[in-house]
Design brief:
Blueprint: E1 3-5, H1 6-13, H2 17-25, E2 32-33, E3 42-45, H3 46-62, H4 64-68, E4 74-84, E5 88-95, E6 98-105, H5 106-112, E7 119-125, E8 128-133
Helix pairs in contact: 1-2
Length: 134
């Protein structure tokens, strides 16, 4: 059976290695270690990856927001600041000459693992700024 590293799986799924690693850490994609012990690379069985890819595509198709998103409103950049409050959070992205600020819940920031230095895209819709990590 074909096996993939987390990096290869990320490439095939069109996401960053960090995103694929977070999915694997959360148990969304089953992994096993190469060789014996816990020091080998994490590998994903081809069948598990295929099933996950189908499920991911189905969820994206069901998500109207992702289907209707306009590329012209997307600003790829880098996270330059993450300010956490008790309940809310503020994330700043520098995208070329543009500084975009998104206000979201602290829980969302923690769940996505957002931190300074990560690549991310800000999507502006009306007066809202959404963050996509890549």
């Amino acid at each position: 059976m074909q096996h993939y590293t987390v990096g290869q799986a990320a490439h095939l799924l069109g996401v960053s290695t960090d995103t694929a690693r977070r999915w694997a850490d959360a148990g969304k994609i089953p992994t096993h270690r190469e060789g014996q012990g816990t020091s080998g690379r994490r590998l994903i069985d081809g069948r598990d990856l295929a099933a996950f890819a189908v499920n991911l595509a189905q969820r994206a198709q069901d998500d109207d927001d992702s289907v209707r998103s306009s590329v012209r409103n997307s600003f790829p950049g880098i996270i330059t600041a993450v300010k956490l409050g008790d309940v809310s959070a503020q994330v700043e992205i520098q995208a070329g000459p543009h500084r975009l600020v998104s206000l979201l819940t602290r829980e969302s920031v923690e769940e996505l693992g957002l931190e300074v230095g990560m690549r991310a895209s800000a999507r502006v819709k009306s007066t809202s700024v959404h963050i996509d990590i890549s």
